[in-house]
Amino acid sequence: MRQCKADYGIDAPGVVRNFFLISLSLLMLSIFSFQIQSALWFWIVFLYSFFTFLPLFATGCWMLYGTKIAKPKIALKIIQNLKLTGNEKLLDLGCGRGILLCEAAKHLPHGKVYGIDLWSSKDQSGNRPEKTLENADREGVKERVSIHTGDVRFLPFPDSSFDVVVSSLCLHNIQGKEEREKSLLEMLRVLKPGGKFAIADIQHAKAYAEFLISQNANVEYSKTNYSYCPPLKIIEGRKL
Ligand SMILES: C[S@@+](CC[C@H](N)C(=O)[O-])C[C@H]1O[C@@H](n2cnc3c(N)ncnc32)[C@H](O)[C@@H]1O
Predict the structure, then answer these.
(1) How far is CA 183 from CA 79, 90, 196, in A?
(2) Helix (H) or strand (E) holding 27
(3) What's this model's pTM, rounded to 2 decimal places?
(4) 170 Cβ below 6 A of ligand 1
(5) What's the gap in Å between 117 CA and the centre of ligand 1?
(6) Is the CB–ligand 1 distance for residue 201 below 6 Å?
(7) Which CATH number fits domain 72-239: 3.40.50.150, 3.40.140.10, 3.40.50.1000, 3.40.250.10?
């Protein structure tokens, strides 16, 4: 029997829903404005509601496109850029439903991937460890995937235990620069010397890069990728 495709959910589902709800309400208002008898009021209401509807609706569509169509391509690019040999031990910080985790596992036939998350369904729809394992099963990589519940600022793994650490769209959810830096320090702690990392995020990429350089890591960061909404940057590097 054919396996169903993995379903990686929708990022920030409440925000996407609000963009569609507000924009569709404005569209209705612009349609109802045809009932207004006064020509001046008609044009004011119509123009305001229609031209506010358009950017809000377009942003909702862009967010859905980013999650469902652009993100799998971004995940593939992140993993390909790591030039894995196939037997690394990799950790995904804030793995959610596992898009990056499963892509990594496909590139690690003799390795092992670990995912850690707090499972916030505000950040991703249907976010639960069972969903991540179900996706790993559907992608045919479940035996190489290990899922953990925890905060990326306090990783439950020993020092120098991973060859690679990746993270996508997780760290900006942590409030406060110092708190985000705690997770970067934890990332460096669990990485082996010479280990690689890649972090994709919609905010703070420059600050992550500057902090990691100040901690003696080697860092490069990519141009802004506009296929995801909001646009994101990827930083890549190595613990020296
Ligand atoms: C937008 S989702 C992205 C999930 C996944 N990385 C992806 O790209 O599909 C952000 C994830 O970060 C997780 N997260 C946020 N803060 C976290 C923290 N302090 N520790 C662990 N996970 C966290 C959320 O639960 C959520 O799964």
Answers:
(1) 21, 16, 16
(2) helix 13-32
(3) 0.94
(4) yes
(5) 6
(6) no
(7) 3.40.50.150
